[in-house]
Design brief:
Strand content: 5-15%
CATH superfamily of the domain at 100-345: Type I PLP-dependent aspartate aminotransferase-like (Major domain)
Order of helices and strands: HHHHEHHEHEHEHEEHEHHEEHEEH
Oligomer: single chain
Structural class: alpha/beta
CATH class of the domain at 100-345: Alpha Beta
CATH topology of the domain at 100-345: Aspartate Aminotransferase, domain 2
């Protein structure tokens, strides 16, 4: 392909992209295919000769597109969103064209310096302490792993990376029973062992019980364990419960324990001053993560990770082979030393586009709309005699179930709701997911897709009621 061919097909594909996004509601939200259906349509061997872009793009539309779940549909209410927006897509297009590998300042100075500036913007926008510093990671899972590894190294006097475990270490990590599974994975990768992850009970709103946390810490200390990290959540995965940060931070400060705050989804709400109550006590914490690629209209992947003590992070991850030595080292940020990855994408560009195109006020307006729609839907559920809310609704995730009058058997209710969810998703008109709260099969309706409106919420509710009644 030469430049002229590239120009021709780029124009055609951009036109298709615009049409796709404009008409995305015409696609079934959830891919309606069987396992291996896509795979079996693809040739078993690669082509010997090059193929035309016309044929390749035709197969994209014929074979690939039917197997895509349309996350950017305003009828997507599943999981948490992986939102996009027009400015973000344009930023991604430029990132792909530049093809920069942004591991250190020398390999693309603008990428490093834009990332530093944009992270400082974000810090100001969500109310983090001014002395904290940030870096863009690929996901909250990677950010949490970076926090736990930093806590491990700091607790060991930065010896484990060099000497390995001696067998005498007795470290403990703490999170609630509702915390994201990435913590379980991180303690495995860090070599701490899942047996040393202590899961703390929650209150009726599914938030961590700080008294139970402190009691577990005291018990572990009396048995010669060393507590090294607590992971608190601002918006747990199942119900978006908000852990009491101020109380947890005071406990961690008292016992000299690293406090990491996972706000992957809920952290975007901190753009609104009325939600800053969630991070009272943040100055006592050590690290914080939220994902602009969830609820801040920035294409996946883009995870904003902040630390209070950057030296602890750098001492955990930095390594300096001869081929990466530069004359600018120490004068600039070399972000390869701020996490697991050496190679790094130019993620800051799309985030910069989003913040500038929306503006802080535009972002706030969109988030408030979603929050209002969440409360609106919660009211619809609450007012219906055959449905019930199963958790508080601090953000836009509504946990509810169908509970027709006269049906009280727990297993029957669980089965009814599982059947209802399957029928909703098979319709292709909406997509919801589920969780379990206190063993109850729970429907999750997350109203946070970039372009969702009340009309989409009303249509979804009408379908839920219709299929439930059937």
């Amino acid at each position: 392909m030469d430049t002229n061919e590239f120009r021709k097909h780029a124009h055609l594909i951009v036109d298709w992209m615009a049409d796709y996004l404009e008409n995305i509601e015409n696609y079934p939200v959830k891919a309606n295919v069987e396992p291996r259906q896509i795979y079996d349509q693809l040739p078993p061997s690669p082509p010997k000769s090059g193929e035309s872009m016309e044929n390749i793009f035709a197969d994209f539309q014929k074979i690939i597109l039917p197997g895509i779940t349309h996350w950017q549909s305003p009828n997507f209410f599943a999981y948490f969103p992986a939102n996009s927006s027009y400015p973000s897509i344009l930023g991604e297009m430029l990132t792909a064209a530049l093809g920069a590998q942004c591991m250190i300042w020398e390999t693309s100075p603008a990428a490093t310096e834009l990332e530093e500036r944009v992270m400082n913007w974000l810090k100001e926008m969500i109310g983090l302490p001014s002395n904290w510093e940030g870096v863009i990671q690929d996901s909250a899972s990677s950010s949490t792993l970076a926090a736990i590894l930093s806590a491990r190294e700091k607790a060991s006097g930065y010896t484990l990376n060099d000497q390995g475990y001696t067998g005498k270490e007795k470290f403990r990590i703490y999170c609630s029973t509702e915390t994201h599974s990435s913590v379980d994975k991180a303690v495995k990768i860090a070599g701490l062992g899942r047996g040393n992850l202590r899961k703390i009970g929650v209150d009726n709103a599914y938030a961590m019980n700080p008294e139970a946390l402190e009691q577990q810490i005291v018990n572990d200390l009396s048995n010669d364990f060393t507590p090294i990290c607590v992971v608190a959540s601002l918006g747990t995965t199942s119900s978006t419960a908000i852990d009491p940060i101020e109380k947890i931070a005071a406990i961690c400060s008292h016992y000299h324990i690293w406090l990491h705050i996972d706000a992957a989804y809920g952290g975007t709400a901190l753009l609104l001053p009325e939600f800053r109550y969630m991070i009272r006590g943040i100055e006592l914490a050590d690290s914080f993560v939220f994902n602009p690629h969830k609820w801040m209209f920035t294409n996946f992947d883009c995870s904003a990770f902040f630390v209070k003590d950057r030296e602890a992070l750098l001492r955990t991850f930095e390594i300096l082979p001869e081929y990466l030595k530069t004359a600018t080292r120490g004068k600039v940020n070399d972000y390869r030393d701020w996490g697991v990855q050496l190679g790094r994408r130019f993620r800051a560009l799309k985030l910069w586009f989003v913040i500038r195109n929306f503006g802080v006020e535009g972002l706030q307006e969109k988030i408030r709309l979603h929050l209002n729609l969440g409360q609106y839907f919660a009211g619809l559920v609450n007012d219906h005699p055959d449905f019930e809310l199963l958790a508080p609704v601090p953000f836009t995730n509504i946990c509810f179930r169908y509970k027709p009058q006269g049906v009280i058997n727990p297993d029957e209710l669980n089965n009814l709701n599982e059947v209802l969810l399957n029928k909703l998703n098979q319709s292709g008109k909406v997509y919801l997911t589920h969780t379990r709260l206190k063993s109850r099969y729970t429907l999750r309706m997350v109203i946070a897709q970039t372009n969702v409106t009340q009309e989409h919420v009303d249509k979804a509710w009408a379908m839920i009621c219709e299929l439930a009644g059937a």
